[in-house]
Amino acid sequence: MPENTPTRALRLGVAGPVGTGKSSLIATVCRSLADELRLGVITNDIYTDEDARFLRSAGVLEPERIRAVETGACPHTAIRDDITTNLLAAEDLERDFAPLDVVLIESGGDNLTATFSPALVDAQIFVLDVAGGGDVARKGGPGIGRADLLVVNKTDLAPYVGVDVPQMVADASVARQGRAVLALSRSDAASVAELRAWVLSVLESHRRGTHVPQDPGPMAPHFHADEEQPEGGFVHTHDEKIGDEHHASAPHHVHSHSDSRK
Amino acid sequence: MQPSPHTISLLLADARLPSGGHAQSSGVEPALLAGMPVADVPAFLRARARTTGMVDAGTAVLARHAALDCITMAPIERAWAARTPSRAIREASKDLGRGLLRLSGRIWPEVRSSLDDLHESPPRPLVLGAIAAHAGIDAESLVRLTVYDDMACAVAALLKLEPGDPAHGVAMVLEACSSIEPQVAAVSSITSAHQIPAASAPQSEAWSEAHALTTRRLFRA
Fold first, then answer.
1. Cβ separation of B16 and A82 shorter than 8 Å?
2. CA dihedral of B206, B207, B210, B214, whole degrees rounded to 10
3. Which of A127, B121, B124, B130 is the Cys-Cys partner for B98 at CB 3.0 to 4.6 Å?
4. Residue of B nearest to A51 (CA)
5. Could you tell me the residue ranges of all domains in chain B?
6. Residue A218: its pLDDT value, please?
């Protein structure tokens, strides 16, 4: 587990394949929380400091609070097998801007198997997007299956890429055995508010000491969708109780926003 | 039961050791970005082994002595810095040293006390020397370890940067490491800072300085 020090922030990882909107999600989190929380960001870029520069130029945080680390062409290693560089960057950021409330660590875009070590982050978000294909959520994998939160991003694009968002969310919910799924679009204020509430709830349980870092692990629950038994009849509920005691207080609403296209 | 010093040497030479080495290229990415032909990599590695490799190895040997004798390492760090004129290379070495030291905190907590009078990020050879002292690794093994680690890091990075046969990379590592065998006995027997080899590699240092300013890189240095 990450070492606890007096200045230790909540470390929140954001992983997911290339182009699913990890940087954008971090910018969204910063935009919605920068007024009330002291934030820092670490990016794990592959070829450049592109993500760090994007976030700096987004103007959501002071540029000094956004740092990039090199990953030696292996973003997977940097967040899981050898987390040294990220740990040192997190410790430096927490020391230089003490006290920080949350340090967001963005992984370099990798594949579906890349998840953060629980020794690096306290909680992690795995990001998919509708443009990557509506079937991706069914494919499972440790991030999809067991990250603390699965985000199905860019729901505003669903009509253009022919993806049924409620179905994708339903598939994800099954693959995750009920763990939290959030259909997100940065242009959908309600979904952004939910993301914000989720981050605050994890921070709250982190501060109370009740949050235990989860490890999605290298193996994942595997789900085979059976098209003979369509789940189009899936009914989402805002009161769904999730069998994850660590997040019992988190808002686990499973939303579909297919009806809120702008 | 204590692990054998030989096992610790193997552990420290293993590229999978979680101490931050995977983000380093031992100067290979800076060289290739600056236009050095890939065909020159074997010669680059031999040059690095006999210059910065020997500086680091000699520094590690002295750090081992200092840790064994419980004396300050500050003069050794200064001697190393004087022989490592590139700030980018010094910073890379300090990143590696800090990563190793962080790992040591879990495995050999006593190593930190040998480096107490240094900054939180001591250069790699000083941390290696301190670990060698506490783990019982002899000076000659330490010299070979210091050079091997750097060469293996270079070739692992090379395989990410340029297409090539991984087996050829292994051959390059062995060739570069064996090229310093004639110096191993002398370097492993030094006892004072002025005996640390002072061979520098100005072209490689210039490449590393330029690399530190680019925004397109896979490796720290």
1. yes
2. -170
3. B121
4. B215
5. 22-193
6. 59
- For the entire predicted model, the pTM comes to 0.84
Distance from CA of B191 to the nearest CA of A (A): 32
Strand (E) positions, chain A? Answer: 10-15, 39-44, 66-69, 102-106, 123-129, 149-153, 181-183
Which of residues 43 through 82 in chain A touch B, CB cutoff 8 A?
Answer: 46-50, 53, 69-74, 77-78, 81-82
If you search the block for the tokens 């991984």, which residue do you land on? Answer: B166
Structural class in CATH, domain B22-193: mainly alpha
Best mutation site among B22, B158, B160 for testing chain A: the one with the most A CBs within 10 Å?
B22
The candidate with the shortest Cα–Cα distance to B120, out of B104, B98, B100, B99, is B98
Q: Shortest CA distance to A11 belongs to which of A19, A21, A1?
A: A1
Interface confidence, given as ipTM, is 0.87
Bridge partners for A206 per DSSP: none
Task: Return residues 164-183 of A near B (CB < 8 Å).
Answer: none
Task: Pull the structure tokens for residue B165.
Answer: 């046969």
Tokens of A40: 């820092």
Q: How far is CA B27 from the centre of its chain?
A: 11
Residue position matching structure tokens 């931050």: B20
Q: What percent of chain A has pLDDT over 90?
A: 60
Tell me the CB-side half-sphere exposure of residue A121, using CA atoms within 13 A.
29
Per DSSP, the residues of B27-71 read: THHHHHHTT--GGGHHHHHHHHHHTHHHHHHHHHHHHHHHHHHT-
CB-nearest partner of A88 from B99, B216, B218: B99
What is the rounded CA–CA span in Å between residue B161 and residue B167? Answer: 15
What 3-state DSSP class applies to A152? strand
Q: Whose structure tokens read 């990143």? A: B95
**Complete domains list, chain A, with CATH:** 10-219+247-260 (3.40.50.300)
**CB-CB under 8 Å, B25 with A71:** no
Query: In this predicted model, what pLDDT tens digit does every residue of B189-208 receive, in sequence order?
Result: 999 999 999 998 999 999 99
A174-230 per-position pLDDT tens digit: 999 889 999 999 999 999 999 999 999 999 999 988 888 777 765 444 344 444 545
Instruction: Give the closest of A48, A73, A88 to B160, CB-based.
Output: A73
